[in-house]
Design brief:
DNA polymerase, domain 1, hpI Integrase, Chain A, 4 domains, three-stranded antiparallel β-sheet
Length: 384
């Protein structure tokens, strides 16, 4: 398979025949450039890395539509998210470019512009773009993925706030009567919002004090309810309900709001219909304002409950099972100290002293450090 370089007036015409039998021609001002181009193309053919130059002419807008249309494995909510990221953040800047012309520098500038104000969104959009471009490489439309910004795909969310036990009780009291149970289930049972909304009467076993997480309920951007299985097998689980929540849960189930039908949703509106995310969000917004914790999102109730669980000494494996985490990385974020846990540790230390019959050290007014030191020396347990 040979290539040729011929002079054409003031320029040089380079030609080679591709693996598909078609000739490709390109004109250069300098002979060395023409010869270099032919050599590169023939080398790529020889190594099996040749890509049809015309293939990369498809725009990112056209290719992304084709890419998304082929992703029949994606959930409806995920498709909505991807389409929103494309329409809002990717295509307005990069959509008109042929995918072969999407240079790493263009991707870097695009990402930096979004990350300046919306770093989390920038990471999501970057991951989507990179996934699309990886498929383009696999489809042999481009030779390499132009998404090469180090760390751009990593989300670095701020540390989420933690509510105290007293604040959770106050938040529940500030909610409408038929929605108070949502706060308690999210915090004390560490359920996701979709899991709370997906609970059915038959999923609650008051005798055993357990909840079965079998389905979730979310809403599309168009406002349609989506009932589906948990995202992972770990999400399908049975959760023990703390005894302090069981009486409230029992009262809620016997209220006028929840239908006796086994398939009836546990969280309902005033007319026994499923509660929408918007209605729950509006009630939650009023409650957190009433309590003075406007920084809390509804998901922070689950975060708070898992933090409490970690503070009681729960292992990573125990946190994973209770939270429905598929990987230990998610559970590890809750293994951090809290002020409440520090007080519990202090109380536990005091209990240790009491069990050891250690007399508290007291000093008279004006006692010197040497006096205290003398007392410590006569009671060795103080220094242990």
């Amino acid at each position: 398979m040979m290539g040729t370089v011929k002079r054409r007036g003031d320029s040089w015409q380079a030609t080679y025949r591709g693996p598909d039998g078609r000739e490709r021609t390109k004109t250069f001002r300098l002979q060395v450039d023409a010869q270099g181009w032919v050599t590169d193309q023939l080398a790529a053919i020889g190594k099996g890395r040749w890509i049809d130059p015309s293939a990369g002419k498809i725009t990112l807008r056209a290719y992304s539509a084709k890419w998304l249309g082929r992703r029949t494995d994606l959930a409806e909510r995920t498709i909505e998210l991807y389409q929103w990221l494309l329409d809002r953040h990717i295509l307005p800047v990069l959509g008109g470019l042929p995918i072969a012309k999407a240079a790493p520098s263009a991707v870097r500038d695009w990402h930096a512009a979004i990350a300046a104000d919306h770093p989390t969104t920038a990471a999501k959009a970057y991951r989507l773009l990179s996934s699309i471009m990886r498929t383009a490489v696999a489809d042999e439309l481009i030779t390499r993925n132009p998404c090469a910004v180090k760390g751009a795909a990593v989300e670095r969310p701020a540390e989420r706030p933690v509510a105290s036990v007293a604040e959770v009780e106050a938040l529940a009291a500030a909610m409408p009567e038929h929605l108070r149970i949502t706060v308690l289930l999210a915090a004390w049972c560490q359920l996701r919002r979709a899991e709370v909304l997906g609970l059915r009467r038959k999923d609650v076993n008051l005798l055993k004090g357990t909840l079965s997480i079998e389905v979730t309920r979310t809403m599309t951007m168009a406002g349609n309810h989506v009932i589906k299985d948990p995202k992972t097998e770990a999400g399908r689980r049975t959760v023990a309900v703390p005894p302090n929540v069981l009486p409230t849960l029992s009262t809620h189930l016997s209220s006028k709001y929840v239908s006796p039908d086994p398939d009836a949703p546990v969280v309902v509106g005033t007319k026994r219909g499923p509660v929408t995310v918007g209605v729950l969000g509006a009630a939650w917004d009023k409650a957190r304002k009433a309590v003075g914790r406007t920084d809390l999102r509804f998901h922070d109730l689950r975060h708070s409950g898992l933090t409490w669980s970690a503070a009681t000494g729960a292992t990573v494996a125990e946190l994973m099972r209770r939270a429905g985490h598929a990987s230990p990385q998610a559970a590890l974020r809750y293994q951090h100290a809290t002020e409440d846990r520090d007080r519990a540790l202090a109380d536990a230390l005091a209990g240790l002293a009491k069990r050891s019959n250690i007399t508290p050290i007291t000093t008279a007014d004006g006692a010197s450090p040497e006096d205290v030191a003398d007392i410590s020396r006569t009671n060795p347990a103080v220094n242990e």
